[in-house]
Structure formats: C-alpha cells, structure tokens
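User: Can you recover a sequence for this backbone? Please restate the input before giving your answer.

Assistant: Of course. Working from this structure:
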C-alpha cells in the first residue's frame, strides 16, 4: 500500500449533521434509503468528533446535510468548532435561516455561509425545490451579507436550469456574494436515480462553459469569484475525485459512519467504521476501507502505467462502482477505460431525448420524523 499523501493528514471534514431536509431536490446526493439517517449523532458525540478531527490535523469543518439548520444544537456545534480553532462553514438551503438564528451562529463564531439556490427564476427554482423557497433564500442571503459573513452562492446545474448560468451570475452579483459556485450535478444518491431527467445535453454543457468564460472575462478580478464544476460525464478525462481517496478530506455521516467521500457507503465489500466504534485517527490511518484506494498500488491497467495516475487518481471510485460494479475499475469517464462506451452512451441518450419533468427527492426529508420548519 502507498502511504497517504502530503503529511498523511486530512485538511477538511464534511460533517453531515443530518439527512433531514425540508426541500425535495431531484439532484440531492444524499442516500436514497431513508433508513441511512437513523440514529443521528448527539451533540456530545459531534463535539468529540470535532476534537478528534482537530487533533488529526483538520483545519476546516463544513457543516452540511440534509439541512443542518434543522438541528437545534447547531450553534453549540459551531461554538465548539470555533473554540478549538476550526474554520466553520455552514452549507445550507437557507429556508430556516432567520435573523435570530444567524445572530446565534455568528455569535458562536461561524466563519462562512454557503447558500444553495435552485435557479435564478423564482418559479423554476421553487419547482425544483418542491416548495416555495426562493424568496426566503434571497432574504437569507441578504441577512448573511448584512452580518458581514462571506457568502458563497451555490447552484447545482442540470438539464432544467443549466441555461440559467448568465442569470445566476447576475443574481449572485445582485446578492453581493463573494463566490458563486456553479456545480454540475454529481450523479450519486437521488441524482443517480433521476439521471435520465437531469443530465444536460453536450450542447447545453458546452454553452454553460462558454457562459462561465464570458462572465469571468466581464468580472475580471471583481466579485463574485466564479467556481465552475464541469459536467463530469461529458468529459473524457476523469475528475480527481476528492483529490484522492483518503487523501485530504473525510466525511462523517449523520449516523457517525466515517467515509472518504459522501457517496462511498454504497460500495459493497468495504466496511466503514463509525465514530462510535473507533477514534477518527485510527479510522483514517489504519482502517482497511480508507487504505483500500490510497496511492496508486491498487490500480490496474490502464491506470497503473498511465502518466496521469497521480493527477486524477484513476477518477472516482463511486462512479466506477456505480457504472461497472467494480470500485477498483478505471472511472468509465476516462477514454482509456474499457467501459468508456457506457458514458458516451449515457450522454448521447440525453441528446436524443426531449426534456422531461424533473422529479423530486421524496418523501420530504427522507424521514418521517423530520421536524424541519416546513411552513412557507
Ligand atoms: Fe486517469 Fe486511469 Fe484514465 Fe490514466 S487511465 S487518465 S490514470 S483514469
Ligand atoms: Fe466517492 Fe468520487 S464520489 S470517490
């Protein structure tokens, strides 16, 4: 086995505090199985996880979900993270971000907010979210800016909204966002289930990239900075997923399962431990699941002798598993993969079909016990 890269320690922790969420986005990357979110970690357990992460070298914690604001103990979690020196980022849909809640989070030491929007057009955004949420999101963005916190606006791009890139840039400017993240949907969880309706055509993907280039030229060094995550399946060189398996980041799922990426739990044959079973340091350095795809020794041809193997790490293990049933296969996005025709077929199919209605994640929250604020 190759050693873990850098000094072998992670920089970032994705803390998935809950899978509960009042929105019903079809592109959600949460697991489709609602039972996966049973037994959420309690407040004291999250504080211990943060302590262990900090001791392991983590510098940033991304507080995510689901919708992390459905947890009433969120300010306490932020305060603990802040106290031990972690940079804290809240990844939220914003529906429940009232002035009072933001004030509590700011007082607790919150450093950054990433707010999702579903589209720049209100009706279309509400249709994608499955609830009337767009106006509340705009109000939440204004609160964040007024509080003096850095704001990233995030939009997941898919077939029904990828034509809105210029309007999304204009919206982010209007909201005075520091960053705009335009991220093509990643096809895991609900998004994988709904891929037929969500996948853009090649022409749409090319037009979006051109719109991003034009916006960057126009904005120059001004705000917002635009981060673009390209349409992975439309490429023929795979993404360096997670910058390598078990290399820089780790995810702790709501039930405490420790994962190299948010989608990894689906890979059969890998036993992922929870924070209730072992300390983070032991899981990170010594668990078989974290070591399985570290470095390059696990690779087969064509990756094993490829000059790009240290650059893209053979692509995404979850995508390889989803498309071929073998997580050790070369990511089929790669043109050198013997399975590349699977991907070109998926993209061609998107171009040959008329647009379909976008389905939604359902049932709402993925949990009957959700106590998220549903009233609009
Ligand atoms: Fe990357 Fe493997 Fe393809 Fe080379 S063969 S480009 S390492 S996925
Ligand atoms: Fe799991 Fe890429 S999403 S390795």
């Amino acid at each position: 086995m190759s050693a873990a890269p850098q000094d072998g320690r992670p920089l970032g922790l994705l803390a998935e505090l809950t899978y509960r969420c009042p929105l019903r986005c079809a592109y959600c990357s949460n697991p489709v199985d609602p039972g996966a979110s049973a037994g959420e970690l309690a407040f004291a357990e999250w504080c211990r996880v943060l302590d262990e992460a900090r001791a392991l070298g983590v510098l940033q914690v991304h507080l995510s979900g689901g919708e992390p604001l459905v947890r009433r103990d969120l300010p306490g979690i932020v305060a603990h993270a802040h106290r031990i020196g972690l940079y804290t980022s809240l990844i939220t849909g914003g529906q429940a971000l009232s002035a009072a809640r933001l004030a509590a989070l700011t007082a607790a030491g919150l450093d950054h907010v990433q707010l999702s929007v579903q589209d720049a057009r209100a009706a279309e955004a509400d249709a994608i979210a499955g609830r009337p949420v767009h106006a509340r999101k705009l109000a939440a963005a204004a609160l964040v800016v007024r509080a003096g916190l850095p704001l990233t606006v995030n939009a997941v791009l898919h077939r029904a909204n990828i034509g809105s890139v210029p309007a999304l840039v204009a919206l982010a400017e209007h909201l005075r966002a520091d960053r705009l993240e335009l991220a093509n949907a990643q096809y895991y969880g609900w998004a994988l289930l709904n891929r037929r309706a969500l996948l853009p055509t090649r022409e749409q993907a090319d037009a979006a990239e051109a719109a991003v280039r034009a916006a960057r030229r126009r904005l120059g060094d001004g705000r917002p900075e635009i981060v673009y995550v390209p349409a992975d399946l439309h490429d023929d060189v795979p993404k360096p997923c997670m910058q390598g398996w078990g290399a820089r980041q780790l995810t702790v799922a709501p039930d405490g399962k420790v994962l190299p990426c948010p989608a990894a739990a689906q890979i059969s044959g890998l036993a992922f431990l929870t924070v209730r079973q072992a300390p983070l340091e032991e899981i990170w350095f010594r668990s078989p699941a974290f070591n399985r795809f570290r470095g390059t020794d696990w690779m087969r041809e064509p990756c094993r002798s490829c000059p790009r193997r240290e650059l893209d790490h053979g692509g995404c293990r979850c995508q390889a598993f989803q498309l071929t049933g073998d997580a050790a296969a070369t990511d089929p996005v790669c043109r050198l993969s013997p399975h590349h025709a699977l991907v070109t077929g998926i993209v061609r199919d998107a171009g040959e079909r008329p647009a379909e209605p976008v389905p939604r994640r359902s049932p709402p929250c993925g949990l009957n016990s959700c106590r998220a604020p549903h009233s609009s």
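That completes the design. The two ends are 52 Å apart (CA to CA).
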